Amino acid sequence: MKTESAAATEGGAAPTKKQVQTEVAKRKICAAVIACLDAHGYSETTINRVQEKAGVTRGALTHHFPSKEAMMVETVERLLQAARAPVRSRTRSAGHKEGSGQTAEADILGLWTHVVNTPEGRALVEILVAARTDKTLHARIAPSLRSYHHDINQGVLALYRSVDRDDDDVAILWSICRVFLRGLHMQERFETDPAATEAIMRRFAEIVGRQMAAR
Fold first, then answer.
1. For position 172, what pLDDT does the model report?
2. Secondary structure, 3-state, 16-48
3. pLDDT tens by residue, 96-131
4. Cross-strand partners of 212
5. What kind of fold does domain 74-215 have according to CATH?
6. At what angle do helices 104-111 and 194-209 cross, to 10 degrees?
7. Where are the domains of the chain?
8. pLDDT of 140-181, one tens digit each?
9. HSE (CB half, 13 Å, CA atoms) of 207?
10. How far from chain centre, in Å, is Cα 207?
11. DSSP E strands: which ranges in 20-173?
């Protein structure tokens, strides 16, 4: 889902003042949602708490998002759009050539550091966990999740090949990576040494990275 101002820009017309104001307000509110999810979890991310964090009036918030569910749906859209960027930037980079030195292991570590183990990554995990039992929320975000899954797989296939299998294996390996990295947030609760998570992450990247090579 594109924002109003982004859609207007892509269509060739400059966004109107109202569209710009709407985009600014939504961005501010979604940033507050992310901060609240990261700090307090899904159940404690209330409309009142988001309103206070965003510094907007109740009327302004409910004008754009009449419910908590609506805030979560918009936030997921924005999180997924931003999470596409790392793969997109490398896929479209004119400087990316075979043998350039970029490895699957480095990309997996980068996925953890720059996408999953961030306030945005942790916020997305909170929403995904909530959607397991919230059927209405699940139904609303499922199409976006599937679109994201497809886009990421296509981006990865443009960058990597399997060492000894076919392209389907690359998509499977990258899906395993995303499953593992999100689960690592849960594993941290079992660890007493913060360095243990880093060690687990590096070992995982080393093992899986060996199965893929740059195209």
1. 95
2. CHHHHHHHHHHHHHHHHHHHHHHHHCCCCCCHH
3. 444 445 789 998 998 999 899 999 999 999 999 999
4. 162
5. Tetracycline Repressor; domain 2 (1.10.357)
6. 140
7. 1-66, 74-215
8. 999 999 999 999 988 889 889 999 999 999 999 999 999 999
9. 10
10. 23
11. 160-162
Q: Cα separation of 51 and 163, whole Å? A: 50
Q: Report the amino acid identity of residue 11.
A: G
**End-to-end Cα distance, the chain:** 31
Tokens of 141: 């975000």
CA distance linking residue 144 with residue 73, whole number of Å: 9
pTM listed for this prediction: 0.85
Superfamily classification of domain 1-66: Homeodomain-like (1.10.10.60)
Q: How far apart are CA 114 and CA 167, in angstroms?
A: 25
Three-class SS state of 159: helix
Structure tokens at 47: 């409309």
Both tokens of 40, joined, read 């307090």
Is residue 143 within 8 A of residue 197, CB to CB? The reply is no
| C-alpha distances in Å from residue 168, one per residue of 108, 153, 182 | 18, 9, 22
Nearest to 74 by CA among 64, 84, 59: 64
The DSSP letter of residue 112 is I
The single residue listed with the structure tokens 């964090």 is 53
Tell me which residue of 132, 156, 6, 18 sits closest to 81, measured CA to CA.
6
Please name the amino acid found at residue 204: F
Tell me the two tokens of residue 166.
């076919």
